[in-house]
Each structure stands twice: as structure tokens, then as C-alpha cells.
User: What shape does this take?
Amino acid sequence: MSDREEHDEHVFRLTRRKALKGLALGIGTMVLPAKDASASVWDSFFQKNFRELSRPERQKILARLEKEYSATYKKSVRVKDTPSPEGVLFGYGLDLSRCVGCRRCVYGCVTENNQSRDPQVHWIKVLRLSKERGVDLEHSEQYYNPATVPQEGYFYMPVQCQQCENPPCTKVCPVQATWKETDGIVVVDYNWCIGCRYCMAACPYGARHFNWKAPGLPAGEMNPETHYLGNRPRPVGVVEKCTFCMQRTREPDGKYPACVEVCPVGARKFGNLLDPTSEIRNVIENKRVFILKEDLNTQPKFYYFYSV
Amino acid sequence: MVPPPPFTEGIFPCSECHKEMRPNPTRRELKDEHADIQLKNHAEKERWCLDCHDMKNRDKLRLVSGEQIDFTESYRLCGQCHGDKYRDWRSGIHGKRTGQWNGKKQYLLCAHCHNPHNPRFKELQPMPPPMRPENIR
Ligand code: SF4
Ligand code: SF4
Assistant: This one.
């Protein structure tokens, strides 16, 4: 761990301690669990930052969550904490000469990652751009709704978390509830997030989303295969974002993200940037590639490319 | 590999009907059978059925070299003209793969997405647009 991170951790510990102290004095504005709250609510309230937990502590928390979710959604829910795989840095490719703007990826993501249906939360936003103007985000349109796509004269550009190598979002978090893991995935600990939404303001891609209300997730549609830092059900008042489907991609039988699998034109590519034989490396080395808002030095690991 | 795209119901094996017929190698418009198959946007002036379908063995496709191949290998046939796409497809750039990014994959074949007789990708109905923020309660 670098000095810098140690320093940062020190800061957030102080901040959290101060916050709790403030609460104890009765001057805090944070909502405390109700008087009749169950032991598990208090447990989660006093839970440590996920990165500081020992193995047994983690296991206890995962078991507690599994029990809670299984009861709520009336099915056996799994909450994994699979760590970053060794020697892997995830990268994503999106073929702008293929995408037809059909939004299958948007809804494939919602289903896989347990986003709130009502109020609506979408991690992927598909922009429609005119071929004449090119990649001109000011003139993009996300509410297009013709009978069929693609439309003459337009191309389409899906935007989601770019898993920046130099992410501005994590730096502004006052309590270090969000960070970048070694496989490059930027994650949020929903139990630690205080909902200040600084990260949303810092993200130049609009990739973070806030749960203004308790997520509306019908039990029948809940995906029970979850990751603690990924698609497990979120509480009200926290920020969430794309995690490259870590509940799928981090497993030994690393499945492609849901959006890759659902795209009907094969516009979406995914793999290990450190593997010179991977599809994504192939794309980067052989095709015209660009990253979004390069001038901000966020260093996205999400590569837009033209296959023709 | 995934199973090759399905044929029209009851049409395969082609030899079922063709074994009774004498092959006619004259280039012509088909009127009695297969009238629904129209070559479109696919160099229809230059080519016709027997450029790709083998005359002697109707259950096979035929490469320019004369080699007979199975329908499951149709990508080799397409690759004769579309060499750039074929290369991109083999390296995972063109087309779609499913399965594991770090392991076993399924590759969709050309004909899963492109009708070989009319290969232009068909337009789709988009899924609903997102709600405008003012409508989210
Ligand atoms: S599913 Fe594929 S083609 Fe459709 S909008 Fe998403 S990326 Fe584009
Ligand atoms: S796209 Fe936004 S949320 Fe994702 S890592 Fe970059 S700054 Fe953070």
C-alpha cells in the first residue's frame, strides 16, 4: 500500500469516527436506526470499511446479508466477495461501426445487476449522434424512440462507467467508500457510502447513479447470484455504478458481462488487457480506437473503436 | 461453436428432393421451387445458386476451389470474398462470442446474423428510452 493510501485511510477513519461521535452527542443529522431496529440493522450500522475486515468478519457479514436478502426476495441469494483475479486488468471495447442503438444492453444490465425498476435506474445510457457532427456529446440525444433502428444519418454510442485508471470519482469520496480494485474495477461499498454524491459530481461520464428511494426490485426478477461490491440489492441513499459484471467476470469460469452477451450485433468486446492474445488487445492493436474525454486524463479502460 | 442456424422447416437434407432430379447447370431464375429465395444486395448480377451450393452433393456447400464443405463451415465460404471480415471474426473483433472471456466460447456463424441470400443486417425495434428525470417519482 502506498503512503498516499495510508494517509487517505487515516483521514477517513477520523472522519467516520467524528461523524459517529457527533451522532452520540445528538448533533448528527444522519439517520440512526430506529429504536426497535433489529440487531442486524445495528450490526450493519457499525460495520467497518470492507477493506479493513478480516476474513471471518467478512464471512459473517456476507452470511448476514444472504439471510436478509433470501428472506426479502424469497429465494436462496448468494453474496460473494470474490477478489480481483491475479494478473488481470479488465478492458472493454465498443464497436461504433456496429452498434445499432437498440438498447438491449441497457435492459440486459438492469436484469443482471438488480437495478431498481421503479424508480428507474439505468447504468448504461445509449446516445444517438449524427454522423455529420461526429462524436459531439453536446448534441447527443438519449430519448430517441423511432419504430426501428438504426436510423439513416445517425450512429449510436452507449456510455457506462469507463473504469478509469485515474478515476476522479474515488478521490473526492470523503469516507473512502469507493475505490479502484487491482483488476481495474471501480467499486462502491454500499454499507459505507454516506450518500453525499460527491463522486457523481466528479465523474465526467455521468456513470454514477443515486438511489433516491428504496430500489423497486420485484422479488421474481431479482438475480440471486450477487457480489458484495457489485449487484447485490442496494439500500436507499447510496450511489451505484457498472462493475463490469464482477459477479460473472471474476469467477474462474469468467463469463462475459451481461451486456456483451445480449448485444445482437456483437458490438461489445471484453477481456484482459494484460493478455496480448485477448480480443480486447486485438481490437486496440488493429483498429482505430479512442477513449472518451481523453483530455481529462481519467484514462478510461473502455475503448470505443471502429471495426471498418 | 453454437449449433448452426436452423434451416427452413423440412428443407434439409436437400438431397431428399434433389436425388430424383437431374441437375441443370444453366443459370436461370427459379420459378417452381425456392422462388422465395432472392439474392439481394449480394452481387446478384454476378452470381447464382451453384456458385455456393454444390451441384453433385446437394447437402454440401462448395468453395471456389471445388472443395465441398458442410453447412456448419459456411464461414469458409463467406471468407472467400470477405477476407477482412473473416480475419476479424476469427480474432474476435467482428461478430459475436458468448461464454467465457477466459475460457470456452461460442462463436456465432456469419449466417446467424446475416441471411446469406440477403445479408444486410435487419433493422430492429429499440427497447424503450429511459424515463426523463422529471417523470421519475
Ligand atoms: S445492445 Fe449492442 S447494438 Fe444494441 S445499443 Fe447496446 S451496444 Fe448497441
Ligand atoms: S467513469 Fe466515472 S464512475 Fe467510472 S471510474 Fe471513471 S469517474 Fe469513476
